[in-house]
């Protein structure tokens, strides 16, 4: 500050310090965005999903337990059609399944069944592929641990009146995001040729990005009626 | 920038610090509530479905 032109120096210094502060601010905002994506969206989605799951459970408990087809399956409504259980992703892992795979549906911390490009078949249909998607990170991150699912692991879908027990027979740990054939009704990419009752889980991979898709295929092994206590099948115990 | 804000806040250092904290919290709130939810779908970090490319515009 003892130079002959203090004002010019000071102006340069203040311009530089403003640039520096802007850069620091940008860094903080980006850090906050990471916090938002990986933590806050999970908080919101888990809260939302817990409420929605509770609502479906209450409807099931309140609704008629008759044998009528619609009454029994209950509600292919916007509230959700049932729960997916995957012991490989945690002992008490369950996620509500809703219609559609749009961002707004998946951001509620649920798994969505495909309506586009290939509509999913429901588990109770005679043949078809029950195709699901959920977030890998953020917004509940329900399929975060999808890489822990291995061939032979059980995947169970719980509807109002039936447990659908699937067994994983093929894992594709990386494919193009345009690979819509993985959700075909006969997913030939998984090696099957005949119509059957399949389940397909899709999410993004590697973690924290959306570069590729991760796919897990299973085939129905058996079904089990839900009893009055909703006793889970042996696979979930 | 921050120096300018600090100099224009009223009160003594404690009051200024308190106001600064409140301002920072307001900024974080606006970011989490409005800015990030808006920005997130525009960034390619969280697409999980297979599609035929149409979802790129959603």
From TrEMBL, chain A:
Transmembrane is among the record's keywords: yes
UniProt keyword terms in alphabetical order: Hydrolase, Membrane, Transmembrane, Transmembrane helix
One of the record's GO molecular function terms: hydrolase activity
Primary enzyme class: hydrolase
Cross-referenced Gene3D superfamilies: Sortase
Keyword field contains Membrane: yes
Transmembrane segment boundaries: 12-39
Annotated EC: 3.4.22.70
Active site (UniProt): 135 (proton donor/acceptor), 204 (acyl-thioester intermediate)
Name of this chain's protein: Sortase SrtE2
Organism expressing this protein natively: Actinacidiphila cocklensis
TrEMBL record, chain B:
Keyword Transmembrane set for record: yes
Keywords: Membrane, Transmembrane, Transmembrane helix
Keyword check for Transmembrane: yes
Name this polypeptide is given: Membrane protein
Residues that span the membrane, as ranges: 12-36
């Amino acid at each position: 500050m003892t130079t002959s032109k203090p004002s010019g120096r000071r102006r340069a210094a203040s311009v530089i310090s403003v640039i520096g502060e802007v850069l620091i601010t940008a860094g903080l905002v980006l850090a906050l965005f990471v916090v938002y994506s990986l933590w806050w969206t999970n908080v919101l989605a888990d809260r939302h999903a817990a409420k929605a799951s509770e609502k479906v459970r209450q409807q099931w408990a309140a609704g008629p337990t008759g044998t009528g087809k619609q009454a029994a399956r209950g509600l292919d409504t916007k509230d959700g059609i049932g729960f997916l259980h995957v012991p490989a992703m945690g002992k008490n892992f369950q996620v509500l399944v809703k219609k559609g795979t749009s961002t707004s549906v998946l951001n509620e911390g649920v798994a969505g069944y495909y309506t586009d490009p290939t509509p999913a078949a429901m588990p109770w249909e005679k043949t078809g592929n029950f195709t699901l998607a959920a977030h890998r990170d953020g917004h509940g991150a329900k399929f975060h641990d999808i890489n822990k699912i291995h061939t032979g692991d059980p995947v169970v879908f719980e509807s109002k009146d039936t447990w659908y027990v699937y067994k994983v027979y093929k894992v594709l740990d990386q494919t193009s995001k345009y690979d819509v054939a993985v959700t075909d009704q006969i997913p030939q990419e998984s090696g099957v040729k005949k119509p059957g009752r399949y389940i397909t889980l899709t999410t993004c991979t590697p973690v924290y990005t959306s570069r590729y898709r991760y796919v897990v295929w299973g085939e129905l092994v058996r079904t089990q009626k839900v009893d009055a206590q909703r006793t889970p099948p042996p696979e979930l115990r | 920038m921050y120096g300018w804000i600090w100099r224009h806040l009223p009160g003594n250092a404690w009051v200024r610090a308190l106001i600064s904290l409140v301002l920072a919290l307001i900024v974080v709130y606006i970011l989490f509530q409005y800015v990030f939810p808006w920005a997130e779908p525009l960034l390619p970090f969280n697409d999980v479905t297979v599609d035929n490319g149409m979802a790129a515009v959603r």
